Amino acid sequence: MGKGADRFERAARAAGLSLDVRRFPQGTRTAADAATAVGCEIGQIVKSLVFVAQGAEPFLALTSGPNRADTYRLSVLIDAPQVRRANPEEAREATGYAIGGTPPFGHPRRLRVLVDRDLLGFDVVWAAAGAPDAVFPITPGELLRLSGGEPADLKER
Description:
alpha/beta
């Protein structure tokens, strides 16, 4: 198992969680890849996207697979004049994980987390587990609880 996935599983165990992390050698880097590998709807895939806001700390937008996070909506939600996607270095610095494997929780520091309301309509969703080929199932309620996430309408229309 990769370093990121190992680190995520250790953090989950330390928090008292027993997650069903599954590895897919063909990769789960994109939402479409993950849905195909898992055998679920693309909407059940949680994309963990890191954003940087002008004058604020980086934050995470947990977005349903087919959706794109709207930077204007995000700026309104966090009350910042401007928001942009983090570059790979900023994302790794904020979360401790590389893009494509960023989990929704278990980061070295607490991040503000906004959760796409579309994810809440499923019984189970699938999120990255610290590596581009590792995912785990979780209920939306547990996703909100463990990430400290705030439900939000954040997708582009």
